[in-house]
Each structure stands twice: as C-alpha cells, then as structure tokens.
Design a protein that fits this description.
It is a single chain. The protein is of the alpha/beta class. It is 32% helix and 26% strand. It contains ten helices and 13 strands. The two termini are 22 Å apart. The protein binds oxa(dethia)-CoA. Oxa(dethia)-CoA binds next to helix 2, helix 6, helix 7 and strand 12.
Length: 326
C-alpha cells in the first residue's frame, strides 16, 4: 500500500480578548439597532482587543493553547504562518514577532495576506512544508484586530467585525493515500483581483501612507460569497476524493449567518453539521475558522477522526476551501 505523508492537525486553540461589545453598545455609536444587526447578520456581540494588545499578542495566546493541546512546546516549532490583514507593524511579519514572543527556535516564519481567506490559504501553504517533510511542527494561525480598521461612522461595516485569534499545530503523519487518512486531504484556492472594489481598505504604505478604513459593498460581496464558495467547496472535496455528504462538520468563515445558511443549503449540508460562532464572535476575518474549530473541539462536538470542511471568502476577492480529517 502507498505510504504518503499527511499534514495532521494535532492541536487547536482559540483566544478572544476580554472586552465584549454588544449590538446595543454599537447603537450608541452609529444609527443601528440590535434587531437590524441580529436579523441581517446573526451577530449579537463581538470581542475587542485592549488598546495595548497587538495582533501578535492575540496570536501568541491562541498558539499557546494549540501547542498545549498538541502536547508540544515552543521549542518544537520550526514553521509559523500567520494569516492576518491587521499586522502589528508594516514589517516584520507577525509570524516572526510570534516566534520571538513564544521563544521558538530559528525556523521559517512569514505572514499570508488573503484577508478573510487567510487561514484557508495559510493551511494549504503549510501543507507544502509539512507533507514534504520540511516541517516537523508547524503553527498555522489566523489572527486579527479588525476593529482597528473600522470607520466608526459607517454603520454598514463597523457592526460586522470583531477581534480574535485561532491556531492549529500541524505535524507530519503517515497515511495510506486513502480518504480515511488523518490530515489535510484536499483544498481549492481562488482569487479574482477584478473584484477589488467590492471589499478593500482605502489606505496603504505605497499609496497614501495611511492605515485606512475597511470599505465594502456588502450586498455584492454577499451574492459573490453564496454563489462562488460552493464551487470551491466541491473542488476541494474532489481534490480530497470525498463527497460533501461525507463531511462530519462544516466550518465556514463566520461573516454572516445568512451566508453560512445559504452556502450550506446550496451544498445540501444539514444545519446540524454547521459550526457557527458568528453570533458571539462576529466576523474575525482570518481568525474565524480556527476560532470556530477551537470552539467545536473544546465543547466536544468535533472529535478525532472526523472529516472537516473549511471555507472562506474575503477581500481580493479571495476564497477557498480545505478538507481535512482530524
Ligand atoms: O468577510 C468578508 C466577507 N464579508 C461578507 O461576507 C459580508 C457580506 N455582506 C453582508 O453580510 C450583508 O450584505 C450586510 C450585513 C453587510 C448588509 O446586509 P444587506 O441585507 O445586504 O443590507 P444592504 O447593504 O442591502 O442594506 C439594506 C439597508 C440599507 O438601507 P436602505 O438603503 O434600504 O434605506 C442600509 O443603509 O440597511 C441599511 N443598513 C443598516 N441599517 C441599520 C446598513 N447597515 C445598517 C445597520 N443598521 N448597521
């Protein structure tokens, strides 16, 4: 039987900053209501990082929890990939700051900028190292302080986002080349740069030198998400050699409960198989999938050996999906 190396998730961890901001809190800042936000998005609250917390601080907490669950320490880590769009500094990468703060030895560390698709892109990239034997212990992190990118006068966007971080530990594991193997089994990544104007930040180092604010044509992004994510999910399932119906848990990017429901319906996935954290976390961009994974693992719903389907879509536009067996 063919032996193949797989990238196996051996630990998952999430971290949410302490401050909780409710919809009613936001109704004091912009012209909105708890009812509108809950009905249109499913969001009830979001977490906000403290002023002295940088995105690397959030990432470090999530990484520590993931390492603990994997039974590993910082000394084992030889690769760190952080999916983020809200870096501490323009450079160096958040990944190298995390490496320093955790006390990891010299290794590989870099960030991936694919906005809300950052975790799916980072996981697929890490597979290229781990499943080729080039990393023995990788940290793949999604971490964001999206509240720092908000225009607090724009009710169409500022109510949607929150801060947080999630991390997984990936280690090589021997498989048989079968769908019963533990590890990352398949993925599909997509980008369409012609859709930039639908979701972007109006600032940057080489344009106006500003941090900028997030701008979004929400209903256009919504339509694109529901239609195009399904194609990527089917492609990832095909890449993995599984049927969407075989999936135990569907863990989508948590942007809007109506998108989660719409995609699940299109794919014929029962709502009982959907891990949803959007009500409590709101949209934490690249952090939302690993945070949702961490929640499902911690509350005992997601168990070792189960088949997970992850998907996301974000600015770029970028989107994609991964299939893995825990
Ligand atoms: O993670 C990256 C991907 N991002 C997403 O996936 C987000 C996708 N988009 C969405 O989730 C939804 O499009 C939104 C939640 C952003 C908006 O929901 P919608 O049902 O598409 O509403 P809309 O943008 O078409 O706006 C409907 C109305 C407008 O008022 P008029 O023009 O009909 O009078 C908006 O001004 O709702 C108004 N509105 C609000 N009202 C109260 C927009 N935001 C708010 C608000 N509170 N916060």
């Amino acid at each position: 039987m063919t032996k193949v190396l797989r990238s196996v998730v051996t630990g998952v961890g999430g971290y949410l900053p302490d401050e909780v901001v409710t919809n009613d809190d936001l109704a004091k800042v912009v012209d909105t209501t708890d009812e509108w936000i809950r009905e249109r998005t499913g969001i009830r609250q979001r977490h906000r990082a403290a002023p002295d917390q940088a995105v690397s601080d959030l990432a470090v907490e999530a990484a520590k929890r993931a390492l603990e669950r994997a039974g590993r320490t910082a000394a084992d880590v030889d690769l760190i990939i952080v999916g983020t769009t809200t870096a501490d500094l323009t450079f160096p990468a958040v990944a190298t700051i995390v490496q320093r703060k955790l006390g990891c030895p010299i290794g590989i560390a870099f960030d991936i900028q694919a906005v809300c698709s950052g975790f799916v892109y980072a996981l697929s990239t890490a597979d290229g190292f781990v499943a080729r034997g080039r990393s023995k212990c990788a940290l793949v992190i999604g971490a964001e302080t999206m509240t720092r990118l908000m225009d607090w006068t724009d009710r169409g966007t500022c109510v949607l986002f929150g801060d947080g971080a999630g991390a997984v530990v990936l280690e090589p594991g021997e498989g048989q080349g079968e769908i019963s193997d533990r590890g990352l089994l398949g993925f599909a990544l997509r980008a369409d740069g012609t859709k930039q104007d639908l979701l972007y930040v109006d600032g940057g180092v080489s344009t106006n030198g500003q941090i900028g604010h997030l701008r979004m044509q929400g209903n256009q992004v919504f339509r694109h998400a529901v239609v195009n994510i399904s194609e990527a999910v089917i492609a990832a399932a095909k890449d993995a050699g599984v049927q969407v119906a075989d999936v135990d848990w569907f863990i989508p990017h948590q942007a809007n409960s109506r998108i989660l429901d719409g995609v699940a319906r299109r794919l014929g996935i029962d709502e009982s198989k959907v891990i949803s954290t959007v009500a409590e976390h709101a949209n934490t961009s690249a952090a939302s999938i690993p945070l949702a994974m961490a929640k499902g693992v911690e509350d005992g719903r997601i168990k070792p050996g189960q088949l997970l389907l992850l998907e996301a879509m974000g600015g770029g536009l970028t989107w994609g999906a991964c299939v893995l067996r825990l």
